[in-house]
Amino acid sequence: MITRIRIDNFKSLVDFDLPPAPHELGGFTCLIGLNGAGKTTLLQAFDFISQVATGGVAGWLDRREWQQLDFINNRGTKRVITFSVTLRTRSGETIEWNVSFNAYELRCTTETITAGAKILLRLEKRSLTFAGAGDGAEQRFDPIPFEYSGSVLSTLKLAEADPRISEVKASLEGLRSLELLSPQLMRRKARASREIGVSGEKLSPFLDQLSVESKDRLQSLLHDFYPQLTTWNIKGFRAGWKILSIQETFGGSRPVSANHINDGFLRVIAILSQSFTEHQMLLLDEIENGINPALIEKLMDFLVGLGKQGKQVIITTHSPVILNFLDDQVARDGVVLLYKTADGRTRACRYFDQPETGYKLQVLGPGEVFVDTDLTKLAARLASEPREEKTRSEGGK
Ligand SMILES: Nc1ncnc2c1ncn2[C@@H]1O[C@H](COP(=O)(O)OP(=O)(O)O)[C@@H](O)[C@H]1O
Ligand SMILES: [Mg+2]
User: Fold this and answer.
1) Distance between CA atoms of 61 and 84, rounded to whole angstroms?
2) C-alpha angle 131/133/135, rounded to 5°?
3) In angstroms, rounded to a whole number, what is the distance separating the alpha carbons of residues 10 and 73?
4) Ligand 1 proximal residues by C-beta, below 6 Å
5) CB atoms closer than 10 angstroms to residue 136
6) Helix, strand, or coil here: 322?
7) Residue 346's closest CA among 19, 2, 39?
8) Which burial class, exposed, middle or buried, applies to 220 when counting CB atoms under 10 A from its CB (0-12, 13-18, 19+)?
9) CA 109, CA 321: separation in Å to the nearest integer?
10) For a designed S-S bond to 161, which of 67, 165, 287, 388 qualifies (C-beta 3.0 to 4.6 A apart)?
11) Which ligand lies nearest to the CA atom of residue 33 in the structure?
12) Chain region(s) in the chain for CATH 3.40.50
């Protein structure tokens, strides 16, 4: 479970941390804020960190059609992104991964993984030291004998290393960003895949390879969302092409094969199906897109539920309807306001910890508070308060 990230020099994220200290990231987080505050950027930052761990940054840039330095903060001159990720392992231990990533070379120049005072891995000046598996004897390579892209974790033989090092990698591999989901691409035929694809373009083959049990479970989840849905199935074509087709029944009439599946349904099926994967963290941008409020309520219950079952969910929204479906405590802990300082840096605070909002939550629902509070004014007030920044960074040390 990822409990905190800090990142510096990634687009508008300059000396940024989430959540504000001393809090920890829980199972469910909902990012809100004005347009341009940095919500999508923050989801991209999580995705970027995951790509660093798995060595996929070059492909990630291509898929986004970004140039190499597009993700560097445009006000500075530094070409290095630094970040740290704090994780809590299954056994309850806290582990920190600290990284300096060179955006020209697309790889980490310095990395450390620490568990308390113990250094599990250190890469510095092309010299690599890590704690070994079993007896934990330290292994040292100077200079490092292999080429790597992103983090050394992407290439290192993890079976020979302390298992806590693998756990760091596994947690970041388990992050799935669905912020680019495209209904147009989800409708397409595609060939075998165990993943849904960055834009959902492999939805059909991904659904096809689910176990019989998962398919049944998905069918019953979907039925709850769309009672008119009778079945869904994947049609196979020659050479392994697959396409999703659903059948709907209206008023007792014969099932209709729906080749033109609506956008909202595709987004819902894509999101629900992720609960059958190993992914530990799901990121969803503007969750309300194309999904009507009645379904949103079910979807929010589902996502908050995933958070309680040990997965982590981070969504962004502009919709008070979404917030109204959250329990007060979930809202207090999980709703994070992003705003920008006068010089364009993104900052985060817990929305319901603010004097403008916290007391209102005693009498209004979270979404009603959102409607009743001038977001522009609140963001301006926070942006003008240097004191908060100071407390935050001191508190985080
Ligand atoms: N390389 C960069 N450096 C600094 N700021 C950037 C960079 N790229 C984009 N931005 C800022 O980030 C904003 C976009 O933020 P975004 O995360 O899309 O906002 P939101 O999703 O909250 O609406 C842009 O308006 C721009 O001000
Ligand atoms: Mg956005």
Assistant:
1) 21
2) 90
3) 5
4) 11-12, 33, 35-41, 72-74, 344
5) 11
6) helix
7) 39
8) exposed
9) 45
10) 165
11) 1
12) 2-174+280-396
Segment (H or E) for 236: strand 229-236
Per the structure block, which two tokens stand in for 341?
Answer: 């300082």
The structure's pTM equals 0.94
Q: Which protein residue's CA is at the shortest distance from atom 26 of ligand 1?
A: 36
Joined together, the tokens standing for residue 16 give 């940024």
CA 230 – ligand 2 centroid, Å: 35
Answer yes or no: CATH 3.30.420 is held by domain 2-174+280-396.
Answer: no
Segment (H or E) for 230: strand 229-236
Tokens describing residue 67: 């140039």
CA 20 to ligand 1 center in whole angstroms: 20
**Share of the chain residues as helix, strand and coil, in percent rounded to the nearest 5:** 35, 25, 35
Residues in the chain, overall count = 397
Closest to 320 in 3D by CA, of 347, 345, 300, 343 = 300
pLDDT value at residue 377 = 98
CA distance 67 to 180: 18
pLDDT for the residue numbered 390:
43
Q: What is the pLDDT of residues 82-118, one digit of tens each?
A: 999 999 998 999 999 999 999 999 999 999 999 999 9
Ligand number nearest CA of 285 is 2
